[in-house]
Design brief:
The protein has 6 helices and 3 strands; from the N terminus they run αββαβαααα.
């Protein structure tokens, strides 16, 4: 999915009542290469650029409602973004930036998560050979 469409979908899930109009068009671009030496031919190269235009609006015009790329608002039961929820999220992000040590709360340290050496040796004895297709006899 194109990044613009992905962003539009995320916004539509956060803001209630957003209509989406997607318009795809194409533009022809001609590159002209002038020769640096006399006697050579000027080269014209044509290429086409695809343009994706996504419009989000709360009040679509009648023409926009008839557009083939029109999408009505989503009918999802979700927690839509409000001014209060936005401010709370901003405050939470600010607190996490100011106190990065709080982000590790409830997580184990890297050393305690790593298995001890004797545990790793036990794991090899318990079936490492079997996994490699060897018999322990």
């Amino acid at each position: 999915m194109d990044k613009a469409l992905w962003v539009a979908e995320v916004l539509r899930r956060k803001v209630e009542g957003l209509h989406q109009i997607v318009h795809v068009s194409e533009r022809k671009i001609v590159d002209v290469w002038e020769p640096r030496e006399e006697g050579l031919v000027t080269v014209h190269e044509e290429r086409f650029l695809t343009i994706l235009e996504v419009t989000l609006t709360k009040n679509p015009t009648p023409d926009q409602l008839k557009h083939p790329g029109y999408h009505p608002p989503l009918n999802v039961k979700a927690d839509y973004l409000t001014k209060e929820s936005w401010e709370k999220g901003e405050q939470d992000r600010k607190d996490r930036r100011e106190h990065p040590e709080d982000r590790r709360e409830g997580r184990e340290d890297r050393e305690t998560r790593r298995p001890r050496r004797e545990d790793r040796e036990d794991r090899e004895d318990r079936g490492g050979e079997r996994r490699r297709g060897r018999n322990r006899d």
